[in-house]
Design goal:
The complex is a heterotrimer of chains A (310), B (315) and C (500). Chain A is α/β, with parallel strands linked by helices. Chain A folds into two domains: 131 residues, Response regulator (Rossmann fold), CATH 3.40.50; 133 residues, Response regulator (Rossmann fold), CATH 3.40.50.2300. Chain A is 47% helix and 19% strand. Chain A has a six-stranded parallel β-sheet with strand order 2-1-3-4-5-11, with helices on both faces. In chain A, strand 8, helix 8 and strand 9 form a beta-alpha-beta unit. In chain A, helix 2 packs across helix 10. About 6% of the residues of chain A have low confidence. Chain B contains 13 helices and two strands; from the N terminus they run H-H-H-H-H-H-E-E-H-H-H-H-H-H-H. Chain B has a single domain, classed as ABC transporter involved in vitamin B12 uptake, BtuC (Orthogonal Bundle), CATH 1.10.3470. The N terminus of chain B is likely disordered. Chain B starts with 6 loop residues before the first helix and ends in a 5-residue tail after the last helix. A two-stranded antiparallel ribbon of chain B has the order 1-2. Chain C has 17 helices and 22 strands. Chain C folds into two domains: 242 residues, Rossmann fold (3-Layer(aba) Sandwich); 236 residues, 3-Layer(aba) Sandwich (Rossmann fold), CATH 3.40.50. The chains are: A alpha/beta (310), B mainly alpha (315), C alpha/beta (500). Chains A and B meet through strand 7, helix 7, helix 8 and helix 9 of A and helix 2, helix 10 and helix 12 of B.
């Protein structure tokens, strides 16, 4: 019993200490409140988007409540439900899954609260979409590879988590380019689960199988791309194999600058974050807004990497 | 029951896992010429090293009748801590190493302390510290990977000595030390006693709490070694690294013959268990098996190995 | 042979070449209690398993009510009327008494039994169970959950289950091993009632006095062979033992010539709330002090406090005249107190470890070099102990679970002795140990005393207490009611104080 009371005290103390995302500030009724649920705050890119949303919200004097769905679509739907219950003025959702996060969109639409999908899509149509077309990122990356190889060579593709929207779209884009370049041969494709260590192990095993036959690797994200670079360097093959990946995380930019990673595809986290808030505010105020804000990808190579390094 | 009756089966069962491992290797050697090359074997060794270190730690824990679910989180915390001090031209190499190992030691000792003092089952305690650890890793790293580490630090994960990857050297040394602790020290003997029959161990004058404290602390240190190795291998301290590692480590220990009810288990068995898992995932990549099938095949082989191992182990 | 309900002729059974049963015969009369005796490994349990259809015999026949039982399985023999009450009672704790009695014979509304999707109707089985229990004179509600019953009550329910099955033969395997003396009396009354109703009982037990009190006929097995069948009145304890062991054991309890030396342990006003209070006695070097009393009198509880497994609430313990605080077994061992628990499996052995590892477990401090184990010293000590205690084992690396009960007990004693105590508490040291090994343990205890060890002996067997102890502390419901010398103690006197 004593322990139970003690435990409760500690828990309460901890909770009050950690309560950073303050609750809806009552009193100043004029201020707009926007609720945001993010795919995962353990993902660097998402954290960057979220940071920019935070900054933009401050600039526009909007209250932003950010919650982490921890990659669970179920949790995300529940979070949107509680946003609706709190009566927020707009919702920004960074969907966990194409299908499973869709109910959240329908709920918000039914409650007449504008909902903006950021970064990735759901099958249900939201009020607006802010993001980039993942298919395009893979097209850019593969086109770069094809060009570098002169349209001929052996390619390995490292997938993200199988079945996720980003993986499916990047795969579609990559396969399109592959079809257009019959000289490119797909040696093998396998998932590295977005993870650097897994990407590294997978590349090590590939090197065992195919050795010097490998001409290029396309990784669905930079984490795996960095893992591939590490494995190739260790095997002394880096200068023979071209590696391209997507996201342009700081690590990858550094690697491009050093020349170990040949190219990465810049997905503009800042633009996505700020446009998401802007669109949400416009929708909440019933002003005119674009239903689809597509932020273009940019190819980052050694030549232009300086623009992206801060 | 009478020992003569199923002696043959018991003997077979004792070596079942080794047999399973051997059969698998032979099959692989014939199905892909790439498997039995020195370079591939070294790569398997390197890939296995992190899981093996964790599996050694959790073997101690399971022998005493406990469980540790916080392994993966400890990997993340210790990796982040080590990376924080491993930037080039800041501290000498010893600092990130000692900081990482120290973090693992403290984390493990905390597990042990709560388990012995609170009498809450280890499953629950370490389930809690698993989440705490993940949170700590995110707090310490502010949710972002810590990169730009010194070359000397990265050598731990990627360097070679006489052509042997450094992680393999760490793996071998850790294996020897762990096997010696388990078989040759009083502490090791007491671990078996505590797991075999805790009340009887206490009645034999063993300080059961002390034994458990040590076991969880050692497990923490081994997890820290895993965390440092991982960080140096991917040259980044990642707060979300190591998720799910505990399951692979526990699987290795159990495949290797460690009984979940405590009191039995060997380091050699665990090493074979870890190698088995490593060989399977390596060879499935070599054979270019689609990832959907990989998971099914992995599950089937794991159950198969344990079934083969389970013969005659009824008592 | 008119009245034989069950006849077993020339039964043989072997396991991978080893004959477990070799031409065993048995004739069971209607309404008799037939004791089956033999040391552990004599073939009793194999015989029983064949009888109830769990094992098929290699040769021989079993005739029950004039019909051959050949090829029957357990379910069929049960239906025909042979039931067995197992030593480890097989019940489902979460089910009620009635549900346990009718387990496997559930009544469903549709009347079909054994159909998994039947709709259960417990009213009928509750009624029937109540009848059977009343008939047996047992006062338990059929709706009580099994887990709330005492071991003795569970046994009664098992018997009720057999009766409700229309059992004509009931086999009881060590039915008194876990129940109190008073409950034994209840059981015996029930057995006599069953006899009067014409039910035959096959009774297996190690306890000599019980056998002579309850049985009409005694059959002895040894090494799987049939040795003989006698009327109980034709035998006495010594002749029965020699039939079982195959040789004259001579005197069961070795004579002692104990010169009492300095005081080792004394307890003063020792008490623990709800368990015992005001206990006062001393033990001297070379002396055996018996602790006697009925089950629940507080014997084991006192031992646990002296050994530091539990805490006392009042009084004090002195070792060699100095007051000590004993709050853990480690502290007790450091003070030279060793404890051989009655609960050999729970508190004595580590079943998964070898003989050697068990024996040296309490004395690792003398078998170490720094943090490492000194294997050589450990092996020498173990070999010595195996020789001294005459432990029968294939080697010191044999797992303890493969040893017989008596040898396991010796391993536990060896472990405690290696910790080099000056006082050893033996709690029911011969429970579950067969006659031959019992005698050896008695000799061992006597030897230890002669070499100056102080000994506290706890036993529920009065002959054991009387035969071994120099002085006897008698307990009743947690109070010390007498401290008797060897000369004045008799069975009657102890019983008188034990129920005082």
């Amino acid at each position: 019993m004593k322990n139970a009371i003690f435990g409760t005290l500690i828990a309460t103390a901890l909770l009050s200490g950690c309560n950073q995302t303050s609750e809806k500030g009552s009193g100043d009724g004029e201020k707009l409140v926007v609720g945001a649920t993010m795919l995962s705050m353990q993902n660097e890119f998402i954290v960057n988007v979220s940071d920019e949303m935070e900054a933009k919200a401050k600039e526009l004097d909007v209250d932003l409540i950010t919650v982490d769905a921890e990659r669970s679509a179920l949790k995300q739907v529940e979070q949107v439900e509680s946003f609706i219950a709190q009566g927020v003025d707009a919702i920004i959702m960074n969907p966990c899954e194409v299908e499973a996060s869709s109910p959240a969109v329908k709920l918000a639409m039914a409650a007449n609260i504008p909902i903006i999908n950021v970064n990735s899509e759901t099958s249900a149509k939201p009020t607006a979409f802010v993001g980039s077309d993942d298919t395009e990122s893979a097209r850019i990356a593969m086109k770069y590879l094809a060009e570098k190889l002169g349209g001929k060579g052996n390619i390995l593709i490292m997938h993200g988590f199988m079945g996720q929207a980003a993986q499916l779209k990047r795969d579609n884009g990559a396969k399109e380019i592959l079809k257009a370049n019959p000289g490119l041969k797909l040696l093998a494709e396998q998932t590295g689960e977005w993870d650097r260590a897994k990407g590294m192990s997978l590349t090590e095993n590939w090197i065992q199988s195919y050795g010097s036959k490998i001409n290029a690797i396309f990784a669905h994200n930079d984490e795996m791309g960095m893992g591939a670079v590490k494995a190739l360097e260790a095997a002394g093959l880096k200068n023979k194999v071209i590696v391209v990946s997507v996201d342009a995380i700081p690590d990858a930019l550094q690697a491009v600058k050093k020349g170990t990673l040949d190219a990465t595809i810049f997905q503009n986290a800042k633009e996505q974050g700020s446009k998401a808030i802007e669109t949400a505010v416009k929708a909440a105020k019933k002003e005119a807004f674009d239903k689809e804000v597509l932020i273009p990808f940019q190819l980052v190579t050694k030549e232009n990497v300086g623009e992206f390094l801060k | 029951m009478p020992p003569t009756q199923n002696l043959r089966l018991t003997k077979f069962g004792q070596y079942g896992i080794y047999l399973a491992f051997l059969i698998l290797c032979i099959v692989l050697a014939f199905s892909t010429p790439r498997f039995f090359t020195v370079s591939n074997l070294l790569i398997i060794g390197t890939q296995v090293s992190i899981n093996a270190l964790l599996a050694f730690g959790v073997t101690f824990v399971i022998i005493t009748g406990g469980i540790d679910l916080s392994l993966g989180s400890m990997v993340a915390v210790t990796g982040v801590v080590a990376a924080t001090f491993a930037h080039p031209d800041t501290y000498p190499l010893a600092v990130p190493l000692l900081a990482g190992l120290g973090a693992g030691l403290l984390f493990g000792a905390f597990n042990g302390l709560v388990i012995t003092k609170s009498k809450v089952p280890p499953f629950i305690v370490t389930l809690g510290t698993m989440t705490i650890g993940r949170g700590l890793a995110l707090i310490l790293s502010k949710g972002r990977p810590i990169s730009n580490l010194s070359d000397s630090f990265n050598f731990i994960g990627g360097g070679n000595i006489f052509g042997i990857p450094f992680p393999i050297i760490i793996l071998i040394v850790a294996f020897i030390v762990c096997a010696v602790i388990l078989n040759k020290t009083v502490l090791g003997r007491y671990m078996y006693a505590v797991g075999g029959n805790e009340p009887a161990a206490r009645a034999s004058g063993i300080r059961v709490g002390n034994v458990k404290m040590w076991v969880y602390t050692i497990c923490g240190i081994l997890s820290a070694m895993g965390g440092i190795l991982l960080t140096a291998r991917i040259t980044t301290g990642q707060p979300n690294a190591g998720a799910g590692f505990e399951l692979d480590a526990i699987a290795a220990a159990i495949i290797g013959g460690t009984s979940t009810s405590g009191g039995t288990g060997t380091m050699t068995g665990t090493l074979i268990g870890a190698l088995l898992i490593g060989v399977i995932s390596n060879s499935l990549d070599l054979l270019n098996v689609t990832s959907y099938y990989q998971q099914v095949v992995m599950g089937v082989i794991i159950i198969g190995a344990v079934v083969l191992d389970g013969f005659g182990k009824k008592d | 042979m008119p009245d034989f309900i069950l006849t077993v002729n020339q039964l043989s059974k072997s396991f991978s070449g080893v004959k477990a049963l070799d031409n065993v015969s048995l004739n069971l009369r209607k309404g008799e209690v037939h004791a089956l005796m033999g040391e552990n490994g004599a073939g009793k349990s194999t015989f029983m398993k064949v009888l109830i259809g769990l094992l098929a015999p290699d040769s021989g026949e079993i005739i029950f009510e004039g019909k051959n039982l050949h090829d029957s399985n357990v379910g069929e023999t049960l239906k025909k009327g042979i039931s067995m009450i197992h030593q480890e009672i097989l019940i489902v704790p979460e089910l009620t008494v009635a549900q346990n009695i009718f387990l496997g014979r559930e009544k469903s509304v549709s009347g079909k039994s054994g159909w998994l999707w039947g709709w259960l109707d417990d009213s009928e089985i509750n009624e029937k169970s109540e009848q059977v229990l009343k008939q047996l004179g047992v006062d338990i509600s059929p709706k009580t959950k099994m887990k709330y019953l005492s071991v003795a009550q569970m046994q009664m329910v098992e018997i009720a289950k057999a009766i409700s099955n229309n059992a004509k033969v009931i086999i009881m395997d060590e039915p008194t091993s876990a129940i109190s003396d008073k409950e034994v009396e209840m059981l015996f009354k029930m057995i006599r009632d069953l006899k009067a109703k014409g039910v035959s009982i096959i009774y297996i037990s190690h306890k000599m006095d019980e056998i002579f009190r309850i049985s009409d006929t005694i059959t002895v097995l040894r090494d799987g062979k049939y040795i003989g069948t006698k009327n109980a009145t034709e035998l006495d304890q010594n002749s029965l033992i020699s039939m079982m062991v195959g040789r004259e054991i001579g005197q069961m309890f070795p004579e002692g010539n104990t010169a009492i030396n300095e005081e080792i342990l004394s307890v003063e006003n020792l008490g623990k709330k709800g368990k015992f209070s005001d206990i006062n006695f001393a033990v001297h070097a070379g002396e055996i002090v018996g602790l006697s009393g009925l089950m629940g009198a507080g014997r084991t509880e006192i031992a646990r406090v002296i050994f530091g497994l539990d805490k006392s609430d009042e009084g004090m313990i002195s070792i060699s005249g100095e007051t000590v605080q004993i709050n853990s077994p480690l502290k007790a061992l450091k003070n030279g107190i060793g404890y051989v628990s009655e609960d050999r499996k729970g508190l004595g052995l580590i079943p998964k470890m070898s003989v050697k590892d068990n024996i040296t477990l309490s004395s690792m401090n003398r078998h170490r070099k720094g943090i490492f184990i000194n294997t050589k010293r450990e092996e020498t000590a173990t070999a010595q102990m195996i020789a001294d205690l005459r432990i029968k084992t294939s080697g010191m690396d044999q797992k303890v679970t493969h040893l017989s009960g008596g040898n396991q007990q010796k391993v536990v004693i060896g472990k405690v002795l290696l910790a080099a105590p000056q006082l050893i508490i033996l709690d029911e040291p011969t429970r579950g140990v067969d006659v031959g090994a019992k005698f050896e343990i008695y000799k061992l205890i006597r030897n230890l005393a002669e070499n100056g060890m102080a000994i506290i002996l706890i036993s529920s067997e009065l002959p054991e207490i009387l035969g071994m102890s120099d002085r006897i502390v008698v307990l009743s419901k947690g109070r010390q009611t007498a401290l008797l010398s060897r000369q004045e103690a008799t069975q009657e006197l102890i019983m008188k104080y034990a129920v005082a």
